[in-house]
Amino acid sequence: MAGMMEFNELDSPMIENGGGLFGPDDDDEDVVSPMGKMVLVSPSSEEFEFLVETIKTRVLDAQGETIYEIGTGEGEKAGLKPDDYQASVATLHSISSSLGLECVLLRERTAQEGTVAEYLLRQKLEPHDFMEVRVAVVGNVDAGKSTLLGVLTHGELDNGRGFARQKLFRHKHEIESVCIGFPQVKNEVVTFIDLAGHERYLKTTVFGMTGHAPDFAMLMIGANAGVIGMTKEHLGLALALNVPVFVVVTKVDMCPPNVMAETLKLLTRILKSPGCRKIPVIVQNKDDVICSATNFTSERMCPVFQVSNVTGENLDLLKMFLNLLSTRVKCDISKPAEFQIDDTFSVPGVGTVVSGTLLQGFIRLNDTLLLGPDALGQFQSIVIKSIHRKRMPVKEVRGGQTASFALKKIKRSTIRKGMVMVSPRLEPKACWEFEGEILVLHHPTTISVRYQAMVHVGSVRQTATILQMTEPHLRTGDKAMVRFRFIKNPEYLKMGMRLVFREGRTKAVGTITNLFPHVSAVAQNTRQQRATKKAQQETKHPLNPQNEPQKPSKRNRRSQKSASDYDAYKENVLQPVSMPNGTTPSTVAPPQPPTSLNISHSFSAGAPPGSSITPPTSSSKS
């Protein structure tokens, strides 16, 4: 019912009192009050057209569905007589048919003056299209997360020894996400994201909460164990990311009444604490389900279900509640496409496949997008080869939907989690540094400059270093403006994105307020990259302000040193020698290194150059 409560509180007093759609008309007492319960009984053509436009606006504002109540009005006793009730139902069906809406009866009840009913109006989609609601399943280890998902998705109860849980591990793709559909409305699919409950795998849980963009979070608690372990950590993470939470207490069939009462008492105290400020509602019947689903998106109400996977107790109420949920996040499909990647695959015969969530815009077959950023902050052009949604081929996807794309001429090794595929019209820029306003949730000591921890922003998961802070030190409960820098790769970020800053357990949460500096995002081919690298090498030692020559490299310095040594050797050792007959040889060979015999060099007087040297005798002494 995303968006419906805002409409009900601001634009439609009818929902507060359960009545009509028009403003009061005091001038004409004969006309039926537009806010009265008789508004749907035989409306005129003008009233019918206005009803059509009003309901159309409500459905669009509520992301494709809304709940309409018949038989109540402002200042009137609730209930319609049988004839008036049938006429109102017929009018509502006519309006739904003209708008292409599904009209499903949720409940009927008897009031003071007759019958009151509530109908679910949901937009009809194409035969191969569907409305997807993403629910993240969190909770401590052994809370029954996988068992409940096995029961919901396969329709078989558990035997108490893991029968339903085993169904999720038959195929690899079912381990990561499972789906449930509703037969009464064919166009809705609920996707469950089964996250880890152990503290060791908290990074996977945080990535699932940030990267998969869930609409709601289902917090699982074992009735026999209570609120233990990572339960509070997961609850605080969902609240920090502004994800609406509802609670499911499992194993009620094996829990003693006193232990069950103690678990509910502790859970109620936590939900009402200043950190949560929730209103817990124990769901016991269908009226509680409809009331909870109608007011759930206000983020104040927190429904609590008590179910058993063995006996099936209250599972019908949980399924009804899931059926009434609708997409919470509003995505503008008129903006340029922006798709965040949360996983990559290499499929034999297909090639590289990426999966993720389309945040805005449209993506169609054979579209050309920019993929990046890489290690240098660059984006490269890619072409969409095929599109799949829930293992079904489609021709296009809209903002807010999850999908998988097969890419042309791209290797999987060049893609990593956290990259994006965006329209060239966005002119994307990657950044090394960013600034955010953070709130420290828990830290045993102090946080100061040069502190490093893991940062989660959307599907981005990378270690960052604190460069600057507005406060010298941060402790538990402190707020500050902090400047971060990634240590490995630049990332594509946007203003206003939520971030989680953690080391082990969650340390701080916040919002990105500034991005700097931006890295140029012009795609380059191999030749351009080589030219850029060569230019960088040539400018590594630029001229100084006095226009002195560049400092030679180490190899050149070695060559120059050898040349200077040879010149000095040539001047000092290789001296010209005066020879008889006025001849002067240019140089004389240098003396050889000494051996065991000392050789005496002598020339006979008057002997021409080149005459033989007298060999030493045995009596010669040095």
From TrEMBL:
Residues 130-330 form the Tr-type G domain. Residues 578-587 have a biased composition (Polar residues). Residues 604-622 have a biased composition (Low complexity). One of its GO terms (molecular function) is GTPase activity. Keywords: GTP-binding, Nucleotide-binding. InterPro entries: EF-Tu_GTPase, EFTu-like_2, GTPBP1-like, P-loop_NTPase, T_Tr_GTP-bd_dom, Transl_B-barrel_sf, Transl_elong_EF1A/Init_IF2_C. It holds the Pfam family GTP_EFTU_D2. It comes from the Eukaryota. Residues 523-622 are annotated as: Disordered. The keyword GTP-binding applies. Belongs to the TRAFAC class translation factor GTPase superfamily. Classic translation factor GTPase family. EF-Tu/EF-1A subfamily. This is Tr-type G domain-containing protein. It comes from Pomacea canaliculata. The lineage of its organism: Eukaryota, Metazoa, Spiralia, Lophotrochozoa, Mollusca.
